[in-house]
Every structure is written in structure tokens, then in C-alpha cells.
């Protein structure tokens, strides 16, 4: 399969760890020059070093995606280094944990929605300007099955992922005329620092025995009987960012071991 990716440039948000780091690495292995964004500078440097150690091209792009001005400045700096941004992957997110809705506060909702939804909106708005003028671009949004089928005890997070899906479909309708593809990927459970920290809190809340029982029940919800790995998501990003997916836009693709099968 000719991906047509060699020499292209990408911005991957939240790629200092987890799924984002793997997306950045997999794109770099295809010959893409990658801007590694994260709010945590040290994490961006680690991801960049890892890509350099595999002879890939990457630069550190630390900025807070919830701050529109910071996104503008950050993207400007990337465009100065790489010339343009061909591929935007909106991956960064924040999940504060699993909490009963009535125990959460407006401040909690604000934090999650700002990163998960406004962050993606900010990056699309800033990056799409160049894509529209060049009449070319790929935008891949990492949503979640939580945004497709709902998720108890993750209300604001799930709602913001539904918003990302609505944004992706609407942008696909508006930007298709400029040869810009916009899609969303919906992972279910995927082994990353985010999931590990949420799971650790559940382990402490339930105790070891009940936690193990919960784990077994969760696995039974996955027909393939496994939790996802970061490369499962990254491989789909590579496909959607490539020329092979030129006729795919406005779609939400679950990469989830069969956890949910929305019609
Ligand atoms: N891990 C899962 O089980 C799972 C399931 C469904 C969907 N997802 C989605 O996959 C994506 C990646 O998740 P992950 O598990 O790798 O998460 P993670 O928490 O391990 O990594 C997210 C990264 O985003 C960064 N970030 C947070 N706020 C930021 C901001 N304001 N600006 C820039 N960077 C910021 C963090 O520093 C972190 O490095 C997210 O969109 C998440 O919602 C993950």
C-alpha cells in the first residue's frame, strides 16, 4: 500500500505519552516529520528522542491546546520549521477518573471539556486555515466509544467526546470542498498511562479481590478478549492520514476489540 506519507508534516497533540506517542512514532516511521505537542515539555522531549533514535524526524512543540493564543503561536513555530502542517491529529485529552455525576463539580467538567473539546476545536481552527489555502489536509480526531454509546461515571468526558464526533462530521461537510478529510477514531479501553491511573484509583476504591472480579467482567465485554494497545489506534491513524484513505471522510471508526458495534 502506498501511503504517500513520506515528506508530509504532522502535529500530534498530547503525544508526550500513551496513544499520542505511538501515533507520533508510527507516523515518523512512515517518513512524516512530526511536531510532538504536549502540555508537559519533558514528555515531548522524551517522545522526540525516541523518534530520533529510530532515525525519524520530530520537533518538540510544547503548548497548552486549551489556550487559543498558545495554539496560534505553537502552530506558527511548527510552520516556520516544517513549512506547513499537512496532518493534524487531535489526541490530547483529560479524564479526571470515574466519579458519580452528583459528586462532580462544574470546575471538573470545565477542565475535561476544555482539553477534550475546546482543545480540538482550537487546533482545528488554527491548522485548517493553512489547509484550506493549500486545498489539502487530513484531520484525525481521537474520540472514544464513550462519546458514541455513553459512559456512566464519565459524564463530561463522554459528552465532550460526542462533541468531538459532531465537530468532525460537521467539519468534514464544510472542508471537503478543499480536499480536507476529517475523521474520528473511537478507541475503547487502551493500555496507556491515562487508563493505568484511572484503574489504579478503582483498585484502591474496590480492594484487590473486587477489582480482579471487575477486570474479568470488563474483559468479557470485549469479543476479542483483550484491551487495546497503543499501536492498534496508531495504525488506524496512519491509514486515515494516508492517500489510501482519500475517499474516507466524516466517519467515526471504533478500534475497540468489538466492545461496541454502533450501527
Ligand atoms: N486509554 C484509553 O483507554 C482510551 C480510551 C478511549 C479513548 N482514549 C482517547 O485516546 C487519546 C489518548 O489517550 P491516552 O490514554 O494516551 O491519554 P494520556 O493521558 O496517557 O495522554 C494524554 C496526553 O495529553 C496531554 N495533555 C493533557 N492536557 C493537555 C493540554 N491542555 N495541552 C496539550 N497536551 C495535553 C497529557 O500531558 C498527556 O501526555 C485521548 O483522546 C483519549 O480520550 C483513550
Task: Give your account of this protein's structure.
Helix 3 packs parallel to helix 4, helix 4 (106-134) packs parallel to helix 6 and helix 7 packs across helix 8. Strand 4 (87-90), helix 4 (106-134) and strand 5 (137-142) form a beta-alpha-beta unit. This protein has a 7-stranded parallel sheet with strand order 3-2-1-4-5-6-7, with helices on both faces. The two termini are 28 Å apart. It has one domain: Rossmann fold. The mean pLDDT is 97. It has 263 residues and is α/β, with parallel strands linked by helices. It has helices at 18-29, 41-53, 68-82, 106-134, 146-149, 155-175, 193-206, 208-220, 230-241; strands spanning 9-12, 33-38, 58-62, 87-90, 137-142, 180-187, 252-255. Bound molecules: nicotinamide-adenine-dinucleotide. Nicotinamide-adenine-dinucleotide (NAD) is lined by residues 13-14, 16-20, 37-40, 43, 64-66, 91-94, 115, 119, 142, 144, 187-190, 192-195.
